[in-house]
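Subgroup meeting minutes
Present: P.N., E.W., G.H.
Scribe: E.W.

1. P.N. recapped why we're keeping a running log of single-chain structure predictions: easier to compare across weeks, and new members can see raw inputs and outputs side by side.
2. G.H. added today's entry (340 aa).
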Amino acid sequence: MQFTRRVGAYGLLRDSGRILMLRDGAEGEYPGFWRLPGSAVGHAEHPERTVIRAAAAQAGLTVTVTRLVAVVADVTTSAEQGLALHTDRLLFELSTSHGRAESARPENGWAEGARPENGWAEGARPENGWAEGARPEAALRDVGAGSVDEARWLSLEEVERLPLTPFTSEALGLPVTPLPPGTHRFAEPFSPPHPDRRLRFGAYGLVTDPAGRILLTQIAAGYPGAGLWHLPGGGTDHGEQPATGLLRELVEEGGQVGRVVELLGVNNLHNPAAVGPEGRPLDWHGVRVIYRVVVDVPTDAVVTESVGGSTARAGWFSRAEAVDLPLSDIAALAIGQSGR
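Output recorded in log:
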């Protein structure tokens, strides 16, 4: 069985009590099922950029990311391909200044990736008028390739009656119904990973105790950023939920038992020539979600992971002490935001 991973970014866009929903077409991941707009994150692409791009290509809308709402992981398998695909799915709340699909009108110009020269959905050419039910005030039509065949603004009551992908049901707070075998369409063939590229999805924590101290970990020699003080956390395992992976890393890197209290955001890292234990430059893309974590009963910070890990040591610091340390980019960002 081949174990592979990807990251997906999706958007929740509401207007006047309705939700923007898409139905996957024959070339989509879940043909015939409805879902939220979004797609897989491209190499080096920020997940926020992904969902903006997807909304433009799939629904002709120009959107703005408001906040990160949730992050969940799922695994789907294909016995035919001998493949187990782990997907970390980020859900963003979106907004648009144009109201219901106004930016999809030809006279208002086209969002990037949605220009007529990139292909029109059948019956959606301006000279033919709008297809029935596809006027902007009622619904949208796909302007992309063949992965989405319809987009509509629907009330939650209408959505509840549709066949939904599990992630969409979970995101909308609806009962999750397992899909029949063979529902998930895997790309044919599934692209093998680039030998010199790495995608790493990680979960990190701004970890504090009741006294307001911050737990930081120092990156070990031989790893990118060696010597810098970093947020506890790291890459999640195949099939592992992000928050679960973070709490595991917190025990391994700092000897602490914590609880996740808030999702703070996502940080994107692209280093096209990172040198690590592999001994040669690699094109690294890191998608890193950040949580706020509280350790109610702190103990001395001790690295408990096996010798040779990426963490040299750990320590508790006041905020004033922490800002004077040589910090990694993500640690500086999180600590800076926490002091506002």
